């Protein structure tokens, strides 16, 4: 049963990350995703200190605000200060993350947010933190509910804003000309990434969230030319790496988060070799290539 | 030579645009007539693209205003179509030709709504007009430069607008595509649509456009091609650039002599 809960939590988180990751990859913004996953930390801690509980809703709000703030700061330093985007990202997220680390170490060390959890995640403890109602009914691990809710939010967001997200990603100039605000959708997407990282914090930790955001989406990008399929493949790779990661960790008796990210890397490597071979076959065999094109017409 | 028109479709008043406090466009004041094929001509860095982008409110204006159909741009976006430069998007994006052309319908759809069958039909019809109906499900990464430009044009047609802005639609396309595109633009303007095109090939200006705008940060001229596209005004637009001036001289000579190329084409 423990294995089931851990893999389920991992999968839910990985699907959320994988879906949003597709947009980040195509917008060439994966490093902003990395930045957000780190800079939400002070938001989470402040929400915890202000509300005094480990309730998820204040944490989601805190993280959302900090995520959008860090996106804004990155843009601000880049535009007003003429700083290169990557330098601007580097300055912003390390600074915010550092504040988070200080807050965790000095104020919340004695409670259940600690540095280890934040940095490496504690997905192995998921089955221990149960949601038990006042009547004593065991509803299962709390993490499953948090990451399930987040996934539901992400799917709804993508479902409702599918065409707006697509056009602002592919052709921002056209979308503005059509009256679809690129700024609003940019910040909505960044808000979505922020709340996803909250769910990921508990399971894989701040360092490896970026692996979930980037690896499944990049794998999917190599395997398809269809955006809708890219979303599906990315989600599927997320599930696959949760399964693979769990059993790899059991076999090696090591960190589950680390094993999940490693599995992701292996899946990516296989996809890379496959897509390179496919290209080579198409190039060295022009008749097959033209046949395929003719058939597709 | 700045000719103003009665009942203009576009009115630009005292428009100044600057990037980092450096003016890119300075005090542009012009009116454009309806139903014409209009070319914006000028050297590199003259602010040609910026002019259409600022008309469409895609870049912030430092001063002045722009009116289209005598209204603010925000209220009539549905009637306006914009074709960005081809290189401005990532053609490795995982999408098919149809996906891209359907984006032209997004402005008419509104929030939440998905493209319907009718939208798809408009998209396919637009592709037919640019001769790309056989490429519906082709991945955009497999298209040639000319085909990419045709897809962009089809997307623009799918918007079913009255006023079209196109940024360098002839850049890097093959001769056949250029011919097909200009044919289509002429048909559009005879249907009383107005088409504004950023253009940099001086050779073809007199054959393509009814109206030209000569631009070099300042507005040098705006008027019917035969009045505005003159030696003196081109010299003023392109400054003392010798090679360009000889090109212009050649061009004017060509205009005086019977155009042999045209005969061959026919």
What does this structure look like?
The complex is a heterodimer of chains A (297) and B (266). With 297 residues, chain A is mostly helical. Chain A has one domain: ABC transporter involved in vitamin B12 uptake, BtuC (Orthogonal Bundle), CATH 1.10.3470. In chain A, helix 4 (56-80) packs antiparallel against helix 5 and helix 11 (205-223) crosses helix 12 (227-252). Chain A has helices at residues 2-26, 30-39, 41-51, 56-80, 85-107, 115-120, 142-160, 162-170, 172-177, 182-203, 205-223, 227-252, 256-284, 286-296, and strands at 130-132, 138-141. The relative contact order of chain A is 0.16. Chain A has a two-stranded antiparallel sheet with strand order 1-2. Chain A is globular. Chain A contains 14 helices and 2 strands; from the N terminus they run H-H-H-H-H-H-E-E-H-H-H-H-H-H-H-H. Chain B has 266 residues and is α/β, with parallel strands linked by helices. In chain B, the strands form 2 sheets. Chain B has a 6-stranded mixed β-sheet with strand order 5-6-7-3-8-9, sandwiched between helices. A 3-stranded antiparallel β-sheet of chain B has the order 2-1-4, with helices on one face. The longest helix of chain B is centred in the last third of the chain and has 16 residues, at 175-190. The radius of gyration of chain B is 19 Å and the shape is globular. Mean pLDDT of chain B is 87; it is low at 262-266. Chains A and B meet through helix 8, helix 9 and helix 12 of A and strand 5 and helix 3 of B.
Amino-to-carboxy terminus distance of chain B: 34 Å
Give me the secondary-structure category of chain A: mainly alpha
**How many strands, which pairing sense, and closed or not: the largest β-sheet of chain B?**
6 strands, mixed
The share of residues in helices of chain A is over 70%
| 3D shape of chain A | globular
The CATH topology of chain A comes to ABC transporter involved in vitamin B12 uptake, BtuC
């Amino acid at each position: 049963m423990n294995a089931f809960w851990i893999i389920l939590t991992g999968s839910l988180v990985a699907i959320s990350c994988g879906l949003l990751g597709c947009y980040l990859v195509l917008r060439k913004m994966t490093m902003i995703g990395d930045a957000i996953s780190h800079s939400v930390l002070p938001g989470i801690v402040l929400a915890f200190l202000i509300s005094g509980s480990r309730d998820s809703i204040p944490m989601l709000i805190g993280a959302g605000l900090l995520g959008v703030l860090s996106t804004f700061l990155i843009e601000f330093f880049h535009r007003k200060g003429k700083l290169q985007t990557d330098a601007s990202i580097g300055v912003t997220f390390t600074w915010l993350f550092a504040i988070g680390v200080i807050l965790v170490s000095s104020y919340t060390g004695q409670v259940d947010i600690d540095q280890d959890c934040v940095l490496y995640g504690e997905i192995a403890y998921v089955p221990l933190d149960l949601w038990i109602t006042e009547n004593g009914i065991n509803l299962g691990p709390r993490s499953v509910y948090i990451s399930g809710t987040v996934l539901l939010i992400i799917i709804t967001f993508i479902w409702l804003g599918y065409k707006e997200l697509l056009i602002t990603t592919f052709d921002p100039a056209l979308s503005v000309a059509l009256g679809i605000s690129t700024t609003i959708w940019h910040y909505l997407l960044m808000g979505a990434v922020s709340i996803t990282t909250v769910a990921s914090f508990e399971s894989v930790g701040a360092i490896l969230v970026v692996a979930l955001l980037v690896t499944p989406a990049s794998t999917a990008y190599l395997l398809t030319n269809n955006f809708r399929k890219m979303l599906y493949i990315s989600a599927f790779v997320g599930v696959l790496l949760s399964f693979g990661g769990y059993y790899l960790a059991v076999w090696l008796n090591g960190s589950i988060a680390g094993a999940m990210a490693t599995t992701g890397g292996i899946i990516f490597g296989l996809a890379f070799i496959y897509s390179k071979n496919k290209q080579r076959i198409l190039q060295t065999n022009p008749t097959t290539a033209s046949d395929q094109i003719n058939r597709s017409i | 030579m700045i000719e103003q028109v009665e009942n203009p479709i576009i009115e630009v008043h005292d428009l100044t645009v600057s990037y980092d406090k450096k003016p890119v466009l300075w005090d542009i004041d012009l009116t454009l007539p309806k139903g014409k094929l209009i070319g914006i001509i000028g050297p590199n860095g003259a602010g040609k693209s910026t002019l259409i982008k600022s008309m469409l409110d895609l870049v912030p204006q430092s001063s002045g205003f722009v009116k289209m159909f005598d209204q603010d741009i925000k209220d009539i976006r549905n009637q306006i179509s914009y074709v960005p430069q081809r290189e401005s998007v990532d053609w490795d994006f995982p999408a098919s030709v149809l996906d891209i052309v359907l984006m032209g319908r997004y402005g008419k759809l509104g929030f939440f709504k998905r493209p319907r069958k009718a939208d798809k039909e408009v998209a396919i019809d637009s592709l037919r007009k640019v001769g790309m109906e056989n490429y519906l499900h082709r991945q955009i990464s497999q298209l040639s430069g000319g085909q990419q430009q045709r897809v962009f044009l089809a997307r623009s047609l799918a918007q079913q607008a009255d006023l079209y802005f196109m940024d360098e639609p002839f850049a890097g396309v093959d001769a056949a595509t250029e011919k097909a595109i200009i044919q289509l633009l002429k048909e559009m303007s005879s249907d009383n649509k107005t088409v504004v095109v950023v253009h940099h090939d001086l050779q073809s200006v007199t054959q393509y456009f009814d109206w030209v705008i000569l631009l070099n940060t300042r507005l040098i001229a705006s008027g019917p091609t035969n009045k505005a596209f003159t030696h003196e005004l081109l010299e003023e637009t392109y400054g003392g650039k010798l090679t360009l001036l000889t090109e212009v001289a050649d061009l004017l000579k060509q205009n005086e002599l019977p155009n042999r190329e045209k005969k061959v084409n026919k």
